Amino acid sequence: MRDICNLWLRRAKRHDGQAGLTLIEVMASVVMIALAGTAALLAVGGAQAGTLKMAQYDQALGLATTIAEEIKDRPQNIIGWVIEVPGDALGNEAQSSIILIVPPPGITFSWTYPLYNGFQCTISSNATNNSANVDYKVQVQTPQGLTATVTAPVLPSS
Q1: How sure is the predictor about 80, in pLDDT bands with cuts at 50, 70 and 90?
Q2: Three-state DSSP class for 134?
Q3: Average pLDDT over residues 12-31
Q4: Distance of CA 81 to the CA centre of its chain
Q5: How far apart are CA 88 and CA 156, in angstroms?
Q6: Are 64 and 146 in contact (CB under 8 A)?
Q7: How many C-beta neighbours within 10 Å does residue 56 have?
Q8: 3-state secondary structure of 151
Q9: Residue 112's closest CA among 125, 124, 126?
């Protein structure tokens, strides 16, 4: 601290009678302030991008859970069943519902459906010899490539 005070005192007592900062010192200060401001803006932008990714992942997980619950709740029959996925509640309210067709248990399949705003849904199942339990796998992928996966176990109808 003492060195800084001495520097300012010496500057005030210049031999040429002038006090103040030189042009180079002012330019260096401006450059340092600009670099610090740029770093701060980049940090805020990175935080916002991370927040958007997490919001989209949460939306994908909500969609996958909704679809999986619909699969678990529907009675199964020989031709499969239809699931209605709600429209985009977070963005475009004019987006209508999306219809997904799910085959009956016992069929190996993997179908991908485009949803809205770049989201995609893949519903898949593997046929097994044990017909007591069937697992459907629901994956919803965000526009940025993050994938939320939910498994929907379905017991055969009695």
Answers
A1: low
A2: strand
A3: 75
A4: 30
A5: 32
A6: no
A7: 22
A8: strand
A9: 124
The token duo for 100 is 């997904």
Task: Identify the burial level of 69 via C-beta atoms within 10 angstroms of its C-beta, where 0-12 means exposed, 13-18 middle and 19 or more buried.
Answer: middle
- By three-state DSSP, how is residue 15 classified? coil
Q: Quick one: tokens of 95?
A: 């987006």
What are the tokens at 113? 């459906």
pLDDT recorded at residue 96 = 61
Q: What is the reported pLDDT for 139?
A: 92
Residue 47: left (phi > 0), alpha (psi -120 to 50), or beta?
A: alpha
Higher model confidence: residue 31 or residue 88?
31
DSSP symbol at 79: T
Which residues partner with 113 through β-bridges? 121
DSSP characters for 126-158? ---S-TT-EEEEEEEE-TTS-EEEEEEEEPPP-
Which of 158, 10, 4 has its CA nearest to residue 76?
Answer: 158
Distance, CA of 75 to CA of 31 (rounded, Å): 68
Q: 83 burial class (0-12, 13-18, 19+ CB within 10 angstroms)?
A: buried
Residue 75 CA to residue 130 CA, distance in Å, equals 19
